[in-house]
Design a protein that fits this description.
It comes from Halosaccharopolyspora lacisalsi. This protein is α/β, with parallel strands linked by helices and 507 residues long. The protein has 24 helices and 12 strands. Helix content is 52%, strand content 8%.
Length: 507
């Protein structure tokens, strides 16, 4: 049976879409058919489940993002359903079918289940109301699929497929929006965002993930209501921001945050980088430069491993690497502009902002360290670093070195081709030297030539701060000179001990 279009499907003009041409209408019908085919191919459990519901007089709909992803040919193993059955009845219908059932969302009418590698969430039809103070609704169950879809965030997420009859339900013209890659809301954007301000961040996230163009009324409402995002917890903001940055088009999402004013409330360091350019153009537009660095870092990330997961740490570091510039900008007497120590200030600012957004400690530390280190290379010049300086560069970067390589290369945004080629050649040279020294000395495991136990034995001391200071001194020598013979290391330890007033027992 081919999928039918539900009688409640709206005309495109009702939601800001021009009427479909004949070719577009046929493309729409084909997409609907393909969505059902894709659904049944990827998730045969959907039909199994639907049979259980229809056998006792209930309807089961695939809904929301699952329909959107089926239409885009990217349906995964997590499926969202809605039904006219109430939670207790849903529980009874899942028992004996699901391998596992969980009810952690039952207060919102949602039950989860797992069967044959597929996770499903089933939510009773809802007709919620919001107090517009927080973002959690006053849950009430509805009785129509149209009412349930109306409360959803965007029209591309407000489509459903009635599984048993393979009926396509699209009352708010989400199909047309999907075909035209347009992001709009089923209700007015003002109503939708007042109910749940997080939807404004989700709009920017969908732009970044799907490459959609927001409807003009959506961006207008986001601009008018940007301050409402302060109703949302930092944890939820962080989750949306991370998904945005890990999408295929993060620059578009970031630009939407800044252009609508949302960034002023969630990541104010970004719009602060839009520094006024002096008449002599002595420095770049820091904000635009940072967006280019983000693009170039992602290109390097993908070229290194096209199948790797998006690198959130690298993308955050690329976006934030110059956030210290506004606070450190100085106009020099000769007409130039300086940003002395902006990497130090920027690292502190990045750490503070990411803490406020409740990022995990390891992400905070890694991003701050990359921001701090991103200028170190510019002291390399014409390859005049000593081997000691190269060792320190590698040691200070530690496991972040591959990311630092990408960030430094991405930070070259000059339009002067000769200068750009010179910078790239210089960094090529540095990487070659790192590889050579690493092959000779195993830089990834740089340690003093004497360990803590040997230091204590030679000096005749027990555990304590003197051992740590001796170990650090020997590590500095190791970085400066490279590997030392055992006798040389012992002599250096004794020399240091005498300078510290420690009398070694073996001397």
């Amino acid at each position: 049976m081919s999928p039918a279009t539900h009688d409640s499907a709206a005309s495109g003009s009702e939601f800001g879409n021009a009427p479909l041409s004949g070719a577009e209408a046929e493309k729409q019908r084909e997409a609907q058919r393909n969505a059902v085919v894709e659904l049944l191919r990827v998730a045969p459990v959907a039909e199994e489940l639907a049979r259980r519901f229809t056998a006792v007089g209930h309807r089961l709909y695939l809904v929301g993002g699952s329909v959107r992803d089926a239409l885009l040919g990217r349906l995964g193993g997590d499926l969202d359903f809605t039904t006219d059955a109430h939670p207790q009845r849903v529980t009874e219908l899942l028992e004996g079918w699901a391998e596992t059932i969980w009810d952690t969302g039952i207060e919102f009418g949602t039950l989860g289940a797992y069967r044959h590698g597929t996770t499903v969430e089933i939510t009773t039809l809802r007709a919620d109301t919001y107090d517009r103070v927080g973002r959690n609704p006053e849950v009430s169950f509805g009785d129509t699929i149209e009412g349930d879809l109306l409360r959803r965030d965007f029209t591309v997420n407000a489509m459903a497929v009635e599984i048993a009859e393979r009926t396509f339900v699209d009352p708010y013209d989400g199909m047309t929006a999907l075909l035209r890659r347009r992001l709009d809301t089923p209700a007015t954007p003002q109503e939708s965002f007042a109910d749940d301000p997080l939807r404004m961040l989700r709009a920017a996230r969908f732009v970044a993930q799907l490459g959609f163009e927001p409807a003009e009324r959506v961006t207008e409402a986001m601009t008018e209501m940007a301050s409402q995002i302060e109703r949302i917890t930092p944890e939820r903001v962080q989750a949306e921001l991370s998904k945005l940055l890990c999408g295929p088009y993060p620059r578009q999402g970031v630009e939407m945050l800044v252009d609508t004013g949302l960034a002023e409330h969630v990541l104010p360091e970004l719009p602060a980088m839009r520094l006024e350019i002096d008449e002599h153009h002595q420095h770049k537009d820091v904000y635009r430069h940072s967006l280019v660095v983000l693009d170039q870092a992602i290109d390097l990330e993908r070229s290194a491993d096209p199948d790797a997961e998006p690198d959130l740490v690298l993308r955050l570091a690329a976006l934030l690497h110059d956030i210290g510039k506004p606070a450190t900008r100085r106009f020099e007497s000769g007409g130039g502009v300086s940003f002395h120590h902006h990497e130090v200030v920027g690292a502190k600012m990045a750490r503070k902002r990411l803490r406020a957004l409740r990022y995990p400690k390891d992400v905070i530390n890694d991003v701050a360290d990359l921001v701090y280190l991103h200028l170190r290379f510019h002291g390399y010049g014409e390859g005049n670093w000593s081997d000691s300086a190269v060792r320190r560069y590698v040691t200070d970067a530690g496991r972040l070195l591959p990311r630092l390589h990408k960030l430094v290369r991405a930070d070259c945004t000059t339009r002067n081709r000769r200068k750009a080629r010179a910078l790239q050649r210089s960094y090529d040279d540095l990487e070659e030297r790192i590889d050579r020294i690493a092959a000779e000395e195993d830089l990834a495991k740089v340690r003093p030539d004497l360990d803590g136990n040997e230091i204590m034995r030679l000096l005749g001391i027990g555990p304590g701060p003197e051992v740590g200071r001796a170990w650090k001194h020997l590590k500095e020598l190791r970085l400066d000179r490279g590997p030392m013979e055992y006798d040389e290391a012992v002599s250096e330890l004794y020399l240091w001990a005498r300078e510290q007033g420690i009398r070694a027992s073996d001397e």
